[in-house]
Amino acid sequence: MTGFTETGLRAIAGPRSFARAQDYLDAVTVTEIGDGWITATVHGTHPYAVKLSLDGGEKPSGECDCPYGLEGNFCKHLVAVGLTALSRAESLPKQRTRARTRARGLDAWLAALSREELLALVREQLREEPQLRRRLELRAAGARGDLDEVRARVRELLDIGPFARYGYVEYSDAHAYGEQAAQAVSAITALTAVGRPADALVLSREAMRLLHAVQESIDDSDGRLGEVGADLAQAHLDACRATRPDPEELAAWLVEHVLGDTDDLTGIDPLDYEDVLGARGMATVRRLAVEAWGANRSGWAEKYLMERLAKAGGDVDAVVAVHAADLVPDGSTHLLIARELDTAGRPDEALRWAERGVEEAEDPAFTATALIDYLCERHSRAGRLRQAVAVRRDHFAARRTLAAYRQLRTVAQAAGLWDAERDTALALLRADAGQRTPYRYEGPVLIDALLDDGDVEAAWQAATETGADDRQWLTLADRSRPGRPADALRVYLRLIEPLLKETGNAVYEQVASLLLGMRACHQRLRTQADFMEYVTALRAAHKRKRNLMRLLDEHGL
To answer: What is the DSSP string of 191-215?
Structure first.
């Protein structure tokens, strides 16, 4: 266990998992200590099986079947087992030595058995271990070339029946099903290893269809089924490389698979098969992909396949054509095209596509913000600040938000044009503020813009003329308090009254904050006695709210 330390555990798990592991030290049940590993059960939300390597040096490794561990993370359960191992550091070397001795003794005993004795031993285990029996039956069927038997066993292993409740495999059973499904993939992979890749090719495709059929009936929150699908895809690729099927037939199957529903789990990429397909097969893939895309230009799978093939071939114009055939009304597709052209070293064309995206947007108020940012950045970088201001001005006119106002201000200040632009922008916001509707729940953007500019006096005047929401009035009171203490005090008094009718720690925090603001106002007005009288009455009326009283004490109120 050289180098296996608490520091190493903390480093790989992170402070959060390490800290949480402390709560699980009493929940660790060590099941076995081997030569270089330790297995245990950690009783958390569920009992989790953990296997920790004791020879990982300063970077420990291990496996846990909790959701976080199944994602490949070094979870709190692994940390808990590691800390348990460290607490037994004095006895572990002896236990590992005994484990090593047992392993050597077992190997020597097996080597000394006769063929008949070994057969008897294996048969005994087969009677007691159904899973071992199924695995060996599969290997035997594959070795003798019994495709029907292997197919039947694979179907059994992929059947959700033994795990399903009312036709659905719950999360608690999904991992066990995933492990069984993985046995089916192992059996298919073994066919290629024993010289039967053609059978592996057939069965891997059948298994993909079977898995797809049950996919929606399994809670695969931990992603185990996805891992099985990826392994199945690899088994199919290995079989193809070994058996070298007809390139055109393989190409047709790949395109049909990628464009169909069954590719969700396997994630097969025709480009991975390029060495098997050769020039003729890849030409067929491209031809079939173009035909499919031509028939359904808005299809996501068709577009993705065309884009992958075009990028792999370095054909930027083809990538542009794929996107251009299905332009999104907000201009986001134009931006994708612009970025592809930028990457290809064609900036002028990229700029034209971005400008088209703005011009052709269905509704300027919903033009993709990223497209506006791109255009503005391009103009600014080239020193075309007036064009950048124009882009931001038009965007603000269509979408009168505080964010758009800030962006216009930033670029206009850089261009030395902010004074004129500000007057125009504020005029638009004043017009909006004067058209209040009963359905508008937020205060005018005008108030936020003036506050963001630091023009508090103008913001206060606008609020009294057009109205403002409570959030804005609170900000106005906080920032106007030095010069308008009486006005700010009236705002605080109005805002605190409805809060005093509510309960909850979040509400109490707001009450305390308002009282602090009120105290500051009274200090400026030299009316501290009035404030003390108000607080005394408030405490008497709400003395049963213990958390509120504690909070007021903490703030000296």
So the answer is: HHHTT-HHHHHHHHHHHHHHHHHHH
